[in-house]
TrEMBL record:
SUPFAM superfamilies: L domain-like
Gene3D superfamilies named in the record: Ribonuclease Inhibitor
Organism: Clohesyomyces aquaticus
Listed name of the protein: Uncharacterized protein
Domain of life where this protein originates: Eukaryota
Length: 507
C-alpha cells in the first residue's frame, strides 16, 4: 500500500483573494458594539496602511457610521468640516448612519444636604473626601485650584440652563444643514455624550485628558446625571431635520413628572412640541423603522385631558402627532427600560403608578402600514394590547419582552381564587388566546413575561400557563429562562396558602 502523498499547502496571500473576500475581511474589521467609542476604527486604519489591496474597501466601512457630538453652541463640528472639505467629496456617499450625541444635565440638588451659597460650593463639599479634609476652608492652594478647574470642566457646563437653550437653538439651525450633506444617509440615532467623551475643543476634554476618566468618581457623593430632557429635545429636532433619504430613526422620549411650565426641562420640550405643529415640513414619509426609548419616571403624570405641553399628556400629544405623520412606518420598537423613579422631580403626588403610557399613546391612533411591533420593559394594562392590535390591520409580528401585564383589582376587596390565577399568568393566556381568535395571522413572540396585580409585586408565569401558551398556534416563540432586567421578579406560586391580601397588593 503506497503512502499518502505529501502535499505542501501555502496559505493564500491577501492580495490573491477574490475581491468579494477582501471586502468581507474589511467588513469584519469594522467596529461592533459601541460604534462610536474612541479608537473603535483603529483596525480599519491599520488595514488601510498595511494592505494596499484592502484600501479600496476601507472607505465604505470607515465612513459608514459617523458621530455628531452636539455639546457647544457655535462650535465647528468635525463632521461638518469633513462634509465641506473638497478633498472628502467622494467619501460623503459612504455615510449611512449619524449618531447625534448630547451631553447630560447634572441634577446638583440630588444628595446636596450641606448649606451652600453657590453651586461651586457644592463641588467643593463633594471633593472633600478626595483630599481627606473635613472643611473646604482647609484646602491648600493647589487643592483649591483643582476644585475650581473641576467645577469649570465637570460641573458648571452641565448645570447651566442657558447652555441647553443655546444648544437647542443651534441644533435647529445646524442639524438640517449637516444631515443634508450626505446623500445616502439612512439612519439617525440620538444618544448621550458622556462627560468623559467630550471633543477636543472643550475644557471638559482638556481636564479629563490631564487627570484621567476616573475624575468623575472624585466627587462624593457622585453628581447625578440626567440626560432625559436633552435626549428628548434632540430627538425631536433630529426627527424634524431628517432628509428624505433617511429610513430609520433611533430616538428618545421624556416622560417627566415635572408639571411646572416654567421649568427649564419643560421649556425645552415645549419649544420642540410647538415648532412641530407650526412648521410646514412634516417628518419625512420615507421613514419605515422607528425605535423609541422612553426615559424618565414610570407611570402617567398629570391629567390625560391636560392641553399644555407638560406631563405625560404633552409628551403623548406630540408623539401621537409624529406617529400619525409617518404613513410608511412598518417597524416600531418601543422600550421602557430607562423608566424608573430615581430621577423624579416631585414627590409623585400627580403620578398614577398604574397608568399605562402606551394606552395613552396608541388610543385612537391608526398605523395603516405597521407590520412589526416591539414592546420591551413596559407596564401594560391587560386590555391595551388587544385594543392596539384591532386598530392596526397590517400587523404581522408582535414582540413582547419583559412586559409586566397589569391586572387592576379592588385594593379593598378580598383575596379570591382568581387572584392566584392572575399571578400565575392567566391574563397572558387570555390575551394570547384572544389574539389567536381575532387576529390569527399575527405572530406573537414572548420573552420573559411577567404578571402583576395593581403593580404591587411582579411574578414569573407558572409552568401550567407556560404549557398552555406554547400550545397556542400564534405563539411562535416563548422564552422564560435567563436573567430578568426587571428587579425582584418573584418565582411562580402553586397556591396562596396563608398569603395575606397585602402580599398580593389588594389590601
Amino acid at each position: 500500500m503506497s503512502s499518502p502523498m505529501n502535499l505542501d499547502y501555502t496559505a493564500p496571500k491577501v492580495d490573491t483573494l477574490p475581491s468579494e473576500i477582501q471586502r468581507l475581511i474589511v467588513s469584519h474589521l469594522a467596529p461592533s458594539g459601541d460604534l462610536y467609542a474612541k479608537g473603535c476604527k483603529r483596525h480599519l486604519k491599520n488595514a488601510n496602511l498595511a494592505h494596499s489591496c484592502l484600501r479600496k474597501w476601507v472607505p465604505e466601512f470607515m465612513f459608514r457610521d459617523m458621530v455628531l457630538p452636539h455639546v457647544l453652541a457655535g462650535m465647528s463640528f468635525e463632521l461638518e468640516r469633513f462634509a465641506v472639505n473638497p478633498a472628502a467629496a467622494k467619501l460623503l456617499k459612504h455615510v449611512k448612519t449619524i449618531a447625534v450625541k448630547i451631553p447630560p444635565a447634572i441634577r446638583w440638588e440630588i444628595d446636596s444636604t450641606d448649606p451652600f451659597d453657590y453651586i461651586d460650593d457644592i463641588t467643593d463639599q463633594r471633593l472633600k473626601a478626595k483630599f481627606n479634609v473635613s472643611d473646604p476652608k482647609d484646602f491648600t492652594d493647589e487643592q483649591r485650584q483643582y476644585c475650581s478647574d473641576y467645577h469649570r470642566a465637570m460641573v458648571e457646563p452641565f448645570t447651566d440652563s442657558r447652555r441647553w437653550l443655546q444648544l437647542l437653538s443651534y441644533a435647529r439651525q445646524s442639524f438640517p444643514r449637516i444631515f443634508g450633506y450626505f446623500p445616502n444617509l439612512e439612519t439617525i440615532a440620538v444618544g448621550v455624550c458622556k462627560r468623559t467623551e467630550h471633543p477636543n475643543s472643550t475644557f471638559t476634554n482638556l481636564f479629563v485628558t490631564q487627570h484621567g476618566k476616573q475624575v468623575i468618581e472624585d466627587a462624593h457623593p457622585y453628581f447625578t446625571e440626567d440626560p432625559n430632557a436633552n435626549l428628548a429635545w434632540a430627538s425631536a429636532i433630529a426627527l424634524q431635520s431628517a432628509p428624505s433619504s433617511v429610513k430609520s430613526l433611533k430616538l428618545s422620549i421624556a416622560n417627566l413628572d415635572n408639571l411646572n411650565s416654567f421649568a427649564t426641562v419643560n421649556r425645552l420640550l415645549s419649544i420642540c412640541y410647538k415648532s412641530a405643529k407650526t412648521q410646514t415640513r412634516q417628518p419625512t414619509k420615507s421613514i419605515t423603522s422607528l425605535t423609541l426609548d422612553f426615559r424618565g419616571i414610570e407611570g402617567t403624570h398629570g391629567d390625560q385631558a391636560w392641553n399644555g405641553d407638560t406631563g405625560s399628556a404633552g409628551m403623548v400629544r406630540y408623539w401621537k402627532y409624529v406617529l400619525g405623520s409617518l404613513p410608511n412606518l412598518t417597524s416600531l420598537d418601543i422600550s421602557g427600560k430607562d423608566l424608573g423613579h430615581d430621577l423624579a422631580f416631585s414627590s409623585l403626588e400627580e403620578t398614577n403608578n398604574n397608568g399605562c403610557l402606551l394606552e395613552w399613546l396608541f388610543n385612537g391612533l391608526r398605523l395603516v402600514s405597521l407590520k412589526s411591533l416591539f414592546f420591551r420593559h413596559f407596564l401594560i394594562e391587560k386590555g391595551t394590547i388587544p385594543k392596539v392590535c384591532e386598530e392596526w390591520p397590517t400587523l404581522e409580528t408582535l414582540h413582547l419582552e419583559e412586559i409586566r401585564l397589569l391586572s387592576i383589582e379592588d385594593p379593598q376587596g378580598e383575596s379570591r381564587p382568581h387572584h392566584l390565577d392572575i399571578i400565575q399568568g392567566s391574563a397572558w393566556l387570555e390575551m394570547c388566546t384572544f389574539l389567536q381568535g381575532e387576529r390569527p395571522e399575527i405572530v406573537v413572540e414572548v420573552i420573559r413575561p411577567i404578571s402583576t396585580i395593581n403593580n404591587f409585586k411582579d411574578w414569573r408565569l407558572h409552568k401550567k400557563i407556560i404549557k398552555k401558551l406554547c400550545d397556542l398556534p400564534n405563539v411562535k416563540s416563548l422564552v422564560t429562562d435567563g436573567e430578568y432586567y426587571c428587579p425582584n421578579v418573584n418565582a411562580p406560586r402553586d397556591s396562596l396558602d396563608a398569603f395575606s391580601r397585602a402580599h398580593l397588593g389588594i389590601s
